[in-house]
Amino acid sequence: MTRKTADVQGRHTIRDVAARAGVSASTVSRVLGGEYPVSAATRSRVMRAVDALDYVADARAKAVAGAGTPTLAFVLDDITGPSFAQMAQGVEREARKMGHLCLVCSTDGDADEQLAFTEMMRAQRAAAVILVGGAHSTPSYEERTARTAHALHSSGSRLVLCGRPPLAEKVPATVIEYDNEGGAHALCAYLLGQGHRRILLLGGAPDNTTLQGRERGYTSAHRAVGIEPDPALRLPGDFTRDSGHRLMRQAIERGLEFSAVFATTDMVAAGALTALHEAGLSVPGDVSLAGYDDIAFTRDLHPPLTTVHVPYEELGRLAVRTALNRDADGGAEHLLLGTHVVVRESTARFTG
Amino acid sequence: MTRKTADVQGRHTIRDVAARAGVSASTVSRVLGGEYPVSAATRSRVMRAVDALDYVADARAKAVAGAGTPTLAFVLDDITGPSFAQMAQGVEREARKMGHLCLVCSTDGDADEQLAFTEMMRAQRAAAVILVGGAHSTPSYEERTARTAHALHSSGSRLVLCGRPPLAEKVPATVIEYDNEGGAHALCAYLLGQGHRRILLLGGAPDNTTLQGRERGYTSAHRAVGIEPDPALRLPGDFTRDSGHRLMRQAIERGLEFSAVFATTDMVAAGALTALHEAGLSVPGDVSLAGYDDIAFTRDLHPPLTTVHVPYEELGRLAVRTALNRDADGGAEHLLLGTHVVVRESTARFTG
DNA sequence: GTGAAAGCGCTAACAC
DNA sequence: GTGTTAGCGCTTTCAC
Question: How far apart are the C-alpha atoms of A132 and A210, rounded to whole Å?
Fold first, then answer.
C-alpha cells in the first residue's frame, strides 16, 4: 500500500502539503512558520497547497517538537457562583492577552478530582495551574496541595492560589488573595458603630478558608469594641442563596435575638432577605442586613445591599500575570489585595 | 556530550525512567498503560523509578502517538452572565463524564476572536467546538460560521451550536437550542390574558438571535389576540442589569405609556425593577414586570419575578453528549428544548 | 533558498 | 515477558 494521503479523519499532514506543492516538508514548515526566508514563488505554491487541502498543522505535534502554544489551566468549585465567574473571567482574559490557551475544570469541591486534574495538567505541560476560590482548611488537604505545588514546581510549572491563603513556608506556590478578614472586620465595625450588638453570622462552609477569614474579621471587630461575639449567633451552611434562605428562616423560627445579619456572601444575603420579608420583618427597619462580594445584582435587591467590594476580576488577572512573569524560580510571591465596604440601604442605626 | 537525563525544565522522559529501572522504554510504556502483561518484578522496578523521578508522561507526545486524552472546546461571550455560566457548567460536567478535557475561550462577543479560536481548536484536534449562547444574526457572520462548520467537519471534528439557531440547510453542525419564541409567546400571552395591552419590550442586543426569538414570541402573542404591538414600546439595549436600569428610567422619563414590562432577561428585569422603584412605581401594583431565564436570585427580588424557565444546564450537557455520540457523520442533529413560564408575584391583572 | 536527516517523547507492531 | 524498530506530525540543524 502506498502512503495514505490523509488519515481516517480526513486530515492532511505536512507531507501531503509538501507533495502537492512539490517541495519538502521542511519548506512547508518554514513557510508556515514565517520566520524564515523562502522565495516568493515557493511560498505561494505552498500556500496554494495549504488552501487546497485546508491544512492546519497539528498543534500537539508542534508542541512535542518544541513549538507549541503555551497553555494554562484553572480549577474552580462552581463556575455558576458569581465571584468565581468573575475570577475566571480575569484569568481567561489575561491568559488570552499573554497568548495562552485555557484548560478548565470545575470540581464541585471534590478534592480528589482537583488533584487528578492537576496531575493531568502536569502531563499537558501547562505553564501554570490556578486554583480559584477558597479551599478546604483540613491539614490533609493542605498537605496534598503542597505536594502538588512541589510536583508542579519541579517540572517547571507553577501552582497558583487565587483567592485562598498560602500554604506552609517553603511551598513553591504563587498566591494572590484578598483581605477576607480586613473586609469583614471593616463591615462588622461599621455595624457595631451603628449600635448593633447582636450580629448574626450567616452561611458559609465551616471548613472553608474564605468563611474562616470572614469569621475572623467578625470576631476581631467585636473584640475591638470590647465584646465577645455570642457563639449561638454563628449559623454556618454553605455559600448559596438557598442556604441563606433556610438558615435565616430557622434563626427566626428559633427566636434567636439579633438586630443585624452579616451574610458571608451576597448570595446568602439574597436568600436571607427573602426569608426576612417572608417573616414580615423589614430591612433595615427591624433588622440590618449586609453581605460580602458586591456582585452586580446586589443593588437591585430591595433595599440595595450594604456589602464588601472585592476586586475579583483583578485577582484573576494578577494570578496569571504573576505566575507567567516570575523571573526567578521558586520565589513564592504573595499578593494581598484590599477590599472596601460599600454602604447602601440595607443597614441602619440600631434603635433598640 | 552524553544524553541528558532531564530537560531544562527538570522534566524526565520515558527513557530516563527506563534507564533507571534497567528496562526498555516500551516496557515502561506498557507498565504505565496497564493493559499489557508485565511481570510483577519489572512492574515494581519501573514504578519505583517513576516515583523516584516523579515522572509524568507527556500528554502531547501521547496524543501524537495516537493515545491522547480527547479534548473539546467551548466558546462564550461572557462567563459572567448567569445563563452562560449554567450552560458552561453543563458542558464542563458532561465533558468530564465523557473523559474529555475542556478548553475555553470567552470572546466578549468579538466574532474575529471566535473564529481565530476555533481555528486553534482545529489545530488542537478538539473533538468538537461548542459555541455557547446567542449569535449575531448578520449574514456575514452566519456565512463565516458556516465555513467554520465545514472546516471542522472535514477534519473529523464538529461544530455545535448551543442556544442559538441552526445555520443554512446543508451546514454540518449540531444544534441544541431552546424555544426562545415559544417561551416569550407563552409569557406575553399570560400578560395579555391578565388584561395588559401595552407591554414594554426591554433590553437585548438588536442583532442577537436570542433577542430576536424572544421578540418574535412577543409579537406573535399580541397577534394571537388580534393586536399589533406598538413599535414605540420596543427598547433594545443589551442584556445587562445596567441596560435594564437605564432603559427603564428613560421610558419613565419619556412618559411612555405601558402597564407591563417584558424584560428580555432576568438581569435586565433586575435593573428595571430598581428603576421602577426609584420612580416611586410599585410592582405589580402600578406596573407588572416579567423576565426571562429564571436565574437563581430571581426569587429574591422584591417582588419575586415572573419569568420563563430555561433548562440551561441540560442544554450544555446535551450539546456535548450529542456531539460526541453521533454515529454517522454529517447528520445535522437539531434539538429544540422546551421552556415554561414561572408565575411569581411581579405580575398582576391589569386594573387600568 | 531548499532538502535530507535527526530529533521531540511517546506507542505499537514485530521479533525472540 | 521484554527489547528492537518503526512510526505519529512536526521543527530544526546541517549540508549543498
Answer: 12
